[in-house]
Inverse folding.
């Protein structure tokens, strides 16, 4: 239980960051530092909570970041350029933000008088195109040089190495989490599951890239936040990296589209379109380390997660229609 702390969340207006902030606000002071390029926070019921402070800023601005971080007990670094479309559009910006921005966050945190924990978000993409029950000690894979997709994985892997280096060299109490396909209410930007759900609600056609045989393990956002909270407070988390996901909810992308149509009783038709980029064909985590050291296990199954996310998007749609 995290109580009475000053929590600083970079990218805290984003999907996972804002969900995390909502879980912490009742018993802590939370500062969200975000450039608001993707703003899920504005749709949250707690957006005006008295314990929440929003600072609009960029992690590439070390001075502003350092000032905003003063007084933090726990730092959670969620800010990044992510999403395959966004990454491919600007690989240079992706690497600048994810590498230099992460270096700025770690450097600013290391200058604090005292910090209990620094949790850095990496990605399951560091395992490359084929990742079956990958554990934290498995070899990471950097795809072909010049293939824009892998700039995201490379930049996040650099962040991981830097976070561990700050722990080993400067005793900064860092922890790294590698999310595996997180979804749920408040997801903004890209992501197959939220796009499929929104289209299914509207009975619109659903497009699957490629032949739909790509395999994923899907993790509901509340389970992801549970893991982050454990990483923020558990003594065993310091200096470690953790795969976070739900290895039981494994399904192909085509199977996912069909499941969403079925669960939501939608009349959406499913079609296939060419993949304009290199894709990850198989991504399933081994979460034994998080279970063993932190006591983490995912609780929300895929069908329940689909229903919860759909309820959120329906409410959003009705609210927008009434305005």
């Amino acid at each position: 239980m995290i109580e009475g702390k000053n929590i600083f969340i970079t990218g805290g207006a984003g999907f996972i960051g804002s969900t995390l902030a909502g879980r912490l606000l009742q018993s802590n002071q939370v500062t969200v530092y975000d450039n608001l390029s993707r703003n899920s926070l504005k749709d949250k019921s707690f957006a005006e909570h008295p314990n929440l402070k929003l600072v609009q800023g960029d992690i590439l601005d070390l001075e502003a970041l350092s000032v905003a971080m003063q007084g933090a007990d726990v730092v959670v670094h969620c800010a990044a350029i992510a999403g395959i479309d966004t990454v491919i559009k600007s690989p240079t910006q992706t690497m600048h933000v994810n590498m230099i921005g992460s270096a700025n966050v770690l450097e600013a945190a290391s200058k604090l008088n005292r910090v209990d924990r620094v949790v850095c978000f990496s990605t399951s993409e560091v395992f490359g195109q084929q990742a079956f029950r990958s554990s934290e000690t498995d070899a990471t894979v950097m795809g072909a040089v010049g293939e824009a997709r892998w700039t995201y994985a490379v930049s996040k892997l650099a962040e991981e190495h830097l976070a561990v280096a700050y722990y080993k060299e400067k005793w900064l109490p860092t922890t790294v989490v590698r999310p595996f396909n997180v979804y749920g209410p408040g997801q903004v930007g890209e992501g197959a599951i939220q796009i499929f759900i929104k289209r299914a609600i509207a009975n619109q056609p659903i497009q699957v890239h490629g032949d739909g045989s790509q395999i994923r393990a899907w993790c509901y956002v509340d389970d992801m936040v549970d893991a982050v909270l454990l990483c923020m407070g558990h003594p065993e988390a310091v200096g470690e990296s953790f795969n976070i996901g739900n290895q039981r909810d494994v399904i192909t992308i085509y199977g996912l589209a069909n499941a969403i149509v079925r669960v939501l009783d939608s009349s959406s038709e499913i079609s296939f379109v060419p993949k304009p980029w290199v894709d990850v064909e198989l991504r399933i985590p081994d979460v034994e380390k998080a279970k063993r050291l932190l006591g983490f296990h995912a609780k929300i199954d895929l069908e329940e997660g689909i229903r919860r996310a759909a309820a959120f998007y329906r409410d959003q749609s009705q609210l927008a229609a009434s305005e």
